[in-house]
Amino acid sequence: MVSPLLALCRHPIVQAPMAGGASAPQLVAAVSEAGGLGSLAAGYKTADGMYQEIKQVRGLTSRPFGVNLFMPQPACADPAAVEVYRNQLAGEATWYETELGDTDAKTDDGYEAKLAILRDDPVPLVSFTFGCPTRQELQALARVGTTTVVTVTTPEEALAAQAVGADAVCVQGIEAGGHQGTHRDNPETDGAGIGLLSLITQVREAVQLPVIAAGGLMRGAQIAAVLAAGADLAQLGTAFLVTPESGAQPLHKQAMTDPRFVRTELTRAFSGRPARGLVNRFVREHGPYAPAAYPQIHYLTADLRKAAAKTGDPQAMALWAGQGHRLARQLPAGELVEVLVAELDEAKAVFAGRDAGGAA
Question: Of 113, 192, 261, 262, which is most buried with the most CB atoms under 10 A?
Fold first, then answer.
């Protein structure tokens, strides 16, 4: 029997939900139309903004797609630490002729209102990041036919997701671009994440749930590798970020293969939560001093990042990227899915040939 998760797409390719605009309805629809599974990012949007994008996707494709929600965050940020960081960024605000943002914004990202919409007007899949929903919330989605996925970064988080009745887990390795989807933000564990291949195995041995593998995947052969390691689907974000359908800033797209940006690292500089991005001036100068304060720091730096983009300066933008960013290919999203599937089939044939040779 095919699991509900695998029935959502013809090919084992999921387009990662990238908050901040990259996961535009056009990208989601193009990936789903090509046989993958497109994903909208509801993070940082209003409930109505999310609903309008859902309607846009439905107008572009009849294929299944997913919506990703950010879990509400505990109000545990140290106001004094946030204020110190605000003072540190005063010079940046002056330089880019903008104001620093309000850090008293709500920390729930409109979660309840978004969940209510998704119960009343269901989508095929809903995934959760930055925590684990309740059993009651997942049961309510199950009753309307929605498949549920929880992002996990450790076997313990996967066990928590299984315990509340999630249909699947998205296993996020340390290689992944953007925010680490840890259930609790603990500064003492910064940089201690687990590599994807090892994490897949550990999660597989801990839970009996389908696995979506995410983290640095850019080629079909890498998809074949994670499938061989035990994943059911592979999720790619950075690979789709540079496509024409992506809503990412042009400067962000260009930076993926810009020789000035040679590496990525996990930083709290832009949001107060560990997120992997290209190392630019802002990361170097402010990353070491950014407090653990999400989403307060995200809102503090939001206008600053927009102002930098408006002036054409990528050195103060959050250039989220996975470790494989230099492998980015500027292809239309549907064509990229086709290329990845061809590479996957080729890799499978190579693996099969080696197995046959060994058996002989």
Answer: 261
> What domain count does the chain have?
2
Say what the pLDDT of residue 2 is.
Answer: 65
As a whole number, mean pLDDT of residues 176-198 equals 92
Q: Are residues 10 and 101 in the same domain?
A: no
Q: Indicate which CATH number applies to the domain containing 54.
A: 3.20.20.70
Which residue range is the domain that position 351 belongs to?
A: 1-73+108-247+330-360
> Do 266 and 230 belong to one domain?
no
**Is there a single domain that holds both residue 60 and residue 98?**
no
Between the CA of residue 294 and those of 8, 72, 274, 275, 299, what are the distances in Å? 33, 11, 9, 11, 9
> Is 326 buried (19+), middle (13-18) or exposed (0-12) by CB count in 10 A?
middle
**Is the pLDDT at 357 greater than 90, yes or no?**
no
Reply yes or no on whether the pLDDT at 360 is more than 70. no
Q: Check residue 97 and give left, alpha or beta (phi > 0: left; psi -120 to 50: alpha).
A: left
User: Under a CB-based contact definition with an 8 Å cutoff, are residues 39 and 261 in contact?
Assistant: no
Residues in a beta bridge with 148: 126
This prediction's pTM: 0.95
For residue 317, which amino acid is it?
A: M
